[in-house]
Amino acid sequence: MIRTAATLITLAALAPAANAITFFDGIFNNADWTLTQLNNANAAGSATQGLQFLTGGNPNEFRRIRNQLTVSTPTGTLHGFHLNVTAFYDPSNQGAITSIDYSEDSINFVNQTGNGQGSGLAILQNGRFYRTSAALVMPYASYNTWQPNAQPGLTASSFWEVDAFGNLSANTPDFSASGSIMQLGFWRGNSNNGSINTECGIDNWNVVIHQAPAPGAAALFAIGGLALARRRR
C-alpha cells in the first residue's frame, strides 16, 4: 500500500502541467499599438484616440484614450480596439487555451456621471473583433487615481463579437487547438443615449494565457501510468 501511494505521488509530480504565456506593456510606444474604431449608426460622427504620454502613468509612461461619443438617436455605441503589434497567440501551434487572466491599471480624468470608459481584453481573430462581454469600468469617484482593474479566468464564452457596424453579437473566439492566430489588445468604449466625452488612461496592460497540456505529453503520462499498474500486478 505504501509503495502504491508513493507511486501515485510520483505520477502526480510527473503529470503534464499546463503552461502559461504572458504579454505585458507598461510603456505604450505609439508604434506598438494600432487603433480601430467601430461605432453603430446612432453614433455616426463619433471619434476615438489613443496616445502615449511620457509622464503621469503608474509610474511613468501610459496610454491616454479620448472618446467623443456623438449620438444622433439613442442608443449610440462607440468601441475603440487597441491592438498590440507584437502580441500574437496561435492556438493551433501553441496549444488550446483553457483560460485568460486580464489586468490593467485604469484612471478616469473627467469628473462626470457614468463609469468613464468600458474596458477589457480585446482579440482579433480571422478578421473579427471580440471584446469581453462584461466591461471593466472606472467611475471617477474611485478611479481619479490609478487603480488596478482585472478580469481573471476568461474563457471563450466571456467574449462578444463587435461587427463592422458596431453591433454586438453572441459569436465568440476559438480557443481550441484548431483556432487560428489571435492578436491581443484592449478595448475602450462608451454607450449612451446622448453625446458625451470621456478621457481615461491605461497602464500595465497584462495578459496571461493558460494553455492546455500538450496532447502528446498527456498520452505519455497515461502510458507510463498503465505500465506501472501492470507491474504492480
Please write out the topology.
Layout: H1 2-14, E1 20-25, E2 33-39, E3 47-53, E4 62-69, E5 76-89, H2 91-94, E6 97-108, E7 118-125, E8 128-132, H3 140-143, E9 147-154, E10 159-162, E11 168-169, E12 182-192, E13 196-211, H4 215-232
Overview of the molecule:
This protein is of the alpha+beta class. The chain has helices at 2-14, 91-94, 140-143, 215-232; strands spanning 20-25, 33-39, 47-53, 62-69, 76-89, 97-108, 118-125, 128-132, 147-154, 159-162, 168-169, 182-192, 196-211. The strands form two sheets. It has a seven-stranded antiparallel β-sheet with strand order 2-5-12-7-8-10-11, with no helix packed on it. Strands 1, 3, 4, 6, 9 and 13 form a six-stranded antiparallel β-sheet that branches. Helix 1 packs antiparallel against helix 4 (215-232).
Along the chain, the helix and strand elements come as HEEEEEHEEEHEEEEEH
Q: Which CATH architecture? A: Sandwich
Q: Percent helix among the residues?
A: 10-25%
Low-confidence stretches: 1-16, 217-233
What is the mean pLDDT? Answer: 88
Describe the largest sheet. 7 strands, antiparallel
* CATH top-level class: Mainly Beta
Count of domain modules: 1
